[in-house]
Amino acid sequence: MLGVDIGTSSCKSVIIDENSQVIADASAGYGVDMPRLNWVEQNPVDWWNAVILSIKKVLKESRINTDALSCMGLSGQMHGLVAIDSGGNVLRPAILWNDQRSFQECQSIIEMVGGKERLLEMINNNMLPGYTASKILWLAQHQPYIYEKTHIFLNPKDYIRYRLTGDFATDVSDASGTGLFDVEHRRWSDKLLSILNISKDRLPSCFESIEVTGYVNAKASGMTGLPKGLPVVGGGGDAVVQTTGTGLIKEGILGTIIGTAGIVAMGLNNYKFNEHGSLQIFCNNYPGTWHAMGVTLGAGASLEWLKDILYDDNCDNIYKRMNENAAASPPGSRSLIFLPYIFGERCPYADPLARGAFIGITYQHHVPDLIRAVLEGVVFSLRHVSELIINCSDVPISEIRTSGGGSRSMLWRQIQADVFQLPVKTVNGSEYGGAFGAALIAGVGSHIWTDIYQAIEMLKVESETDPDYRNKDLYDELYDNYKSVYPALKSIFDRLSSLT
Questions:
Q1: Are both 236 and 251 inside the same structural domain?
Q2: What is the dihedral of CA 377, 378, 380, 386, to 10 degrees?
Q3: Is 112 annotated as a binding residue?
Q4: Cα–Cα distance for residue pair 275/126, rounded to 1 Å
Q5: Structural domain harbouring 135
Q6: pTM assigned to the model
Q7: What are the tens digits of pLDDT across the range 213-245?
């Protein structure tokens, strides 16, 4: 099975076998354009060129006969807007998930539907600037000549699907992140589309993640080396697919992803109403299942920020050195607390004006304490988000499955185990992110496995970190203090924002 993930900085391709073992992987990168403040764009053709390159590389590395491929799955950055004309041409650069230009359109949508409560009744999610819906309204308002020419609006991975198969299709998990989808009934929201005057004909057909949406056509076969007629399943949005790749389908397992941002997620056995709209509740990658998720914006980015301040770019093994330094500081970082809101925050507080802060710094604190406080502050933020997610389930949490770049740090895994007081596990394939999850989904879609539950049973635990119970009381007390920091500083953050 082949899995392809269209990320924000690169395309990754992975081939796995029927035992969920990775046979080969490859990647190809591309750039990001920021033409104005808070605008973030990419050329979709760059994605396609990277897909071609990464697929050719992974096929060569795998040394398999391409006829042995049973199916292909797609994963990709969520929420992006790709405008396509009637000839299949890209009309403008894609507007990405982290683009903030449509903030005002979000407010307009909430007003148009009659308030946030009515919006939650329709799509079970609040309207965020990253979502596709507000981008479509921005396009209609600010670039009407593009809007009028647009035949169909696609998300990033679904543009690649179109280039592979010629079909306009998406899946329920990626559609959930558009802000136009009835998550409960797993279909486009006719009510919301009517209010926003968006024709459903301008949106792709929607499939379950495991359903075949089309087949690799002759043109794409010639460009990529894939066999003509290879089935392509729905796949999913990267934040959902990556957690599927670690086994997060059933309730009872909490997932953490420490990348640039931090994600806390859990599979839901049944639909749950997103009270207050604080979380993102999407359709999961298997029929009859859902996915609850909260995002904290400054996770791995906080460590990256500190690294840039403390270390020369030419230093070897910087992150290894940082981990060694942090390990020299005791649990609790000598009572130093870090608030990781360096990009503002999304969850549990939707506040773009929030800021980061070190609390309790004294003369006794040194570099190891600063680094460890950042690691601990990020985990405190993950725990804060998790409290909202756990309220969605009646099933007690038994373990944490962690992935992302931060999961490679043994110290960061231990801090997670100690702060949550739960065992923290990594499983095979997690380092390959959405590409691995997409390949698993492809295996279910091609009936290599009976269902997604059999597929995730193939996953093997590669590391397990047990909590140190001696640190429980210390971390509980520090966490209580951590939760007091943002409410105490919010008014200061608001005032500081007016000075810049």
A1: no
A2: 170
A3: no
A4: 10
A5: 2-240
A6: 0.92
A7: 999 999 999 999 999 999 999 999 999 999 999
